[in-house]
């Protein structure tokens, strides 16, 4: 019982002064201008595989933004975010965006080109302006192995 009281207190303290003052929300139409919404769709983070020689080496979590044309209906395309994410996951598993030089990152050029093509397929022409990878974070630390010829020619230890 005491634990529940502490949790409730922590929630109230975390809510801060906004909760104490009634949330600070005003009814619409009181002369307050509606905040301008950006023309983009942010995808939920997606874990993409890094596959080398048919073996899973790592996962890289990517954050992607699809920039829309100025006249696009943003709310309509934000509601279709699962379709964009599904296209990204399918493409990433069909042909992984693996960089041969670094298993901690994905090939952003290939990812953006592939997702741009799929996004235009979903929305139709003239809606998507660009695709941007805003950040990427590897799941683990995977190093690029040395070539097999170097390993085979090295003297035994």
Description of the structure:
This protein has 157 residues and is α+β, with helices and mostly antiparallel strands. The protein is built from five helices and four strands. Strands 1, 2, 3 and 4 form a four-stranded antiparallel beta sheet that branches. A hairpin with a 2-residue loop joins strand 2 (46-52) and strand 3. Helix 3 packs across helix 4. The longest helix is centred in the N-terminal third of the chain and has 19 residues, at 2-20.
Short key terms for the protein model shown above:
alpha+beta; 22% strand; 4-stranded antiparallel sheet; 157 residues
Quick overview of this protein structure:
The chain is an alpha+beta fold and 157 residues long. The protein is 39% helix and 22% strand.
């Amino acid at each position: 019982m005491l634990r529940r009281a502490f949790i409730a207190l922590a929630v109230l303290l975390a809510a801060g002064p906004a909760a104490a003052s009634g949330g600070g929300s005003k009814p619409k139409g009181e002369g307050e201008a509606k905040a301008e919404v950006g023309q983009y769709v942010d995808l939920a983070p997606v874990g993409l595989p890094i596959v080398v020689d048919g073996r899973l080496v790592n996962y890289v979590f990517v954050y992607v933004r699809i920039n829309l044309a100025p006249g696009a209906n943003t709310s309509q395309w934000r509601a279709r975010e699962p379709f964009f994410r599904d296209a990204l996951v399918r493409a990433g598993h069909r042909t992984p965006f693996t960089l041969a030089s670094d298993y901690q990152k994905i090939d952003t050029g290939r990812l953006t080109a592939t997702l741009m093509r799929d996004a235009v397929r979903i929305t139709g022409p003239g809606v998507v302006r660009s695709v941007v990878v805003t950040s990427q974070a590897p799941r683990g630390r995977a190093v690029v192995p040395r070539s097999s010829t170097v390993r085979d020619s090295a003297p035994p230890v």
